Amino acid sequence: MWAKATFALPARVKNGPSVQPVAMLSKDKALMVTSYAMRPIFFAYDRRTGRHQALATAPKWGECNLCYEIMSAAMNETQIAWTAGIYRSEPGNPGKRHMELWIMPRSGGQMRMVTWLTGPGDIPWGDELTITGDHAIWRSEDDTYRVPLAGGHPEKINPPAEPRPVKPDPEVRNFRCDVEWCVGRIRPRPDEVTTLVVQRRDGSGRATIAASSSERPLIGDRFGLFDPPYVYAGNSVHISTNDLGSNAVVYDRCTGKTAQVGAPQEDEGSAQVLQGATSPQEPILFWPTQSEKQYIVLDLSRISDQPCRN
Q1: pTM (predicted TM-score)
Q2: Domain limits for position 228
């Protein structure tokens, strides 16, 4: 399924470091970044020529492990921005990590720190970044901030209130909504396959999907990235495991189709399926092959939106 939207990228620069995908810069060029264990370097990889081009390199002080750890990323037509967990010795930093916002031109060039996002010792478990006009919108665990890309202090904002969603029934747990569409987990019963429900905020358009959980609403109000289903035995016991060896289910709301994605690893586990940077288009999903020599990329922006318009 979605063969035209799926392709492979090398997991290492020739005679150079290991890298992983971030986003697609164009149809044939991918934005890649080095692994978290080393000083970050951004590369553009040309799928036609098979060559990497270095776009920007983090400061020298970012060489040590976890001194400069990229957390989330976003881009628009001209810029790439990202949040980073930072540790560096300097006045006012009592030996603790904090979060910063950084930016660079999309075509490559010098990296620039925009501002501190948190104080020393404050690293959220999860965050999300988008670019809107001349500002970055940063969402931490509990709050949302707007930051001028030209520099300045983060300004706490209150997202616009959305209509209260209609919850499908009392058996639904972990109900999350985006602009229009919501996802929830139906409370499993013994000897049944775990199921999620997808519906509009007003309760219409309801569909059920064989999956076990969702950490986020639908991507772009269309695609779901869910954990695989299993048969529930009661008291949180799994009767069946994921026999297909994948570790995620991708769901397309417009067609109702699902696909198992991911690949088993040599240690008998499965590598996590990750979502790339946010951008004006749908992001990429990616995961390593079993050999870990390549990444498989599913570019959601290449999946036709014609079914959504019907």
Answers
A1: 0.89
A2: 172-309
* Domain match, 132 and 31 both: yes
Residue 241 has pLDDT above 70, yes or no: no
Q: How far is CA 131 from CA 33, 134, 187, 281, in A?
A: 19, 7, 36, 12
Same domain, 129 and 189: no
Domain closes at, from 103, 126, 157: 157
Q: Which of 157, 191, 211 is the last residue of a domain?
A: 157
Of the candidates 158, 274, 167, the one whose C-alpha atom is nearest the C-alpha of residue 216 is 274
* Residue 116: strand pairing partners: 100
Range with lowest mean pLDDT among 17-21, 173-177, 236-240: 236-240
Closest CA to 275 of 250, 306, 252: 250
239 and 291: one domain?
yes
Average confidence score pLDDT of the chain: 87
140 and 179 together in one domain: no
Express each pLDDT in 65-78 by its tens digit: 778 889 999 999 99
**pLDDT of 244 higher than 80:** no
Cβ-contact 203, 169 below 8 angstroms: no
Alpha-carbon Rg for the chain, nearest whole angstrom, is: 20
Do 201 and 244 share a domain, yes or no?
yes
Instruction: Report the candidate in 49, 118, 42, 116 with the shortest Cα–Cα distance to residue 80.
Output: 42
Structure confidence by residue, pLDDT tens digits, 133-162: 999 999 987 789 999 999 998 999 987 777
> For residue 108, which amino acid is it?
G
What's the CA gap between 154 and 131, in Å, rounded?
A: 14
Q: How far apart are CA 224 and CA 155, in angstroms?
A: 31
